Amino acid sequence: xxxxxxxxxxxxxxxxxxxxxxxxxxxxxxxxxxxxxxxxxxxxxxxxxxxxxxxxxxxxxxxxxxxxxxxxxxxxxxxxxxxxxxxxxxxxxxxxxxxxxxxxxxxxxxxxxxxxxxxxxxxxxxxxxxxxxxxxxxxxxxxxxxxxxxxxxxxxxxxxxxxxxxxxxxxxxxxxxxxxxxxxxxxxxxxxxxxxxxxxx
Length: 201
Known about the structure:
This protein has 7 helices and 6 strands. It is an alpha/beta fold. The relative contact order is 0.08.
């Protein structure tokens, strides 16, 4: 069993940092040391910002985004195209699309995907709320932007079934060769999807 190299407070900081995505035990130790050495410039402001975020962060009751207000900043943005709604699995996907500045649309966060093996059914996601939003009117297109996994595709098909009967255009993100990708390094599934989704040039 490894011996502790610092007091319990620092060890706890390292353990918590190691739980963050992309940080293993070694990276967490480096990050903790960096923070502790710069207590006034980094550690104290970070601690205060985290405490404030923990107290103020809310889930948007309209779209499912995370923000410090409800409705969120995106939902209250008057410049958004409210007739187009992009359906994503998680808030991280919403933020990725926003960084890409691909479309100035509205969003709907599902909170995951259907996965019978993990016990995640339709009632565990916000699919019903999506149907309610469509029923309220004003939405002309739903863009399903879920991951190209078996669970993601199952979820997409379920959503399409639930929206059957509405006067609505339903589209999904194109799947295939990424920008800068080389054919030799792509898997067969990606190449097949790219061939099926080919477009005229």
